[in-house]
Write a structure and sequence with these properties.
The protein is mostly helical and about 290 residues long. Helices cover about 75% and strands about 0% of the residues. It has helices at about 1-40, 45-50, 60-90, 100-110, 115-130, 135-160, 165-170, 175-190, 190-205, 210-215, 235-245, 250-285, and strands spanning about 50, 55-60.
Length: about 290
């Protein structure tokens, strides 16, 4: 029995290390290919001009702008309910109650729903039922719902790291639960809010399926002026169309350039979240 336990203790870390190495090799390979094929296309002109010639000429200015509008609106949609859910989970539900565990399960299930399902639901609700057609707001709402579990879990983890002494001291001073939320819980949740937002935005920036149905077009859109029939250009959809339909040499060069810009954006958001994640884990361990 002892020998089998030792084998399992050796096997699990080894499998984890091998898996990490495989992922690292794949990531390095992808980044290397993108740098080799996309660096020559990326320039100030490429980043600040609009697309021309079916993607074979010009740049990706409006694709970058559209992606920023989408992730900004997604963040605006996701933050209020994420704060509310995390406070309910951390303040009003005890960590080990059945309701708390059920809420955790629901959040993880929502986080695992494929993006294509959100896209189809968005098509049925916003395009068909509401009659919005292709709308930037519909895309922002869908992406906001998609990143809601990530943002909420990050907030719950941050709130769980709040020292109990703070809450006990506030209670001893006679503060009500609402005052404790305003004075302690909300200020202490800022790190989790930033971390979850960055991780969620990194995911939202690279999603294609939801915006494919309700938001994105390949050309003809600039800055939205309304909600109904106001589509956007977006980097993921631009890359998708160029990869599928364009065979011109200039289009291929712009494809790799756009892919490099998108991966750089996602990488920056993920790297920005790392220090906060490390600090959060340290605070949780010493809480």
């Amino acid at each position: 029995m002892t020998g089998s336990r030792k084998f399992i203790r050796w096997l699990l870390p080894t499998l984890g290390l091998v898996s990490a190495l495989v992922v690292a090799v794949v990531v390095i390979f992808i980044v290397t290919v993108l740098l080799q094929r996309g660096t020559s296309s990326v320039s100030i002109h490429f980043l600040t001009t609009d697309t021309r010639g079916a993607g074979s000429e010009g740049g990706i200015f409006y694709q970058i702008l559209g992606t920023c509008i989408l992730i900004g609106s997604a963040l605006a949609v996701a933050v209020p309910p994420a704060l509310a859910i995390s406070l309910v989970r951390s303040v009003f539900l005890q960590p080990h109650t059945r309701l708390g565990k059920a809420l955790d399960l629901i959040l993880h299930l929502l986080n695992g729903i494929p993006a294509i399902v959100f896209g189809i639901l968005g098509l049925l609700i916003f395009s068909k039922l509401f009659g919005w057609g292709k709308s930037w707001l519909a895309g922002g709402i869908l992406l906001g719902v998609m990143i809601l579990p990530t943002l909420t879990v990050a907030l719950i983890e941050r709130l769980a790291a709040v020292p109990r002494a703070y809450i006990e001291a506030a209670t001893g001073l006679g503060l009500t639960r609402g005052q404790i939320i305003l004075a302690i819980w909300l200020p202490q949740s800022s790190g989790g809010l930033i971390t979850g937002s960055l991780l969620g935005l990194a995911r939202a920036a690279g999603e294609t399926a939801p915006i494919l149905f309700v938001t994105a077009v390949f050309s003809g859109a600039t800055v939205p002026t309304g909600i109904v029939d106001n589509p956007l250009l977006a980097l993921p959809y631009h890359i998708f169309v160029l990869a599928q339909d364009s065979f011109h040499e200039g289009a291929r060069a712009n494809l790799w350039g756009a892919a490099l810009v998108l991966v750089t954006l996602i990488t920056v958001l993920n790297l920005a979240a790392l220090p906060l994640r490390f600090r959060l884990h340290e605070e949780s361990r010493h809480a």
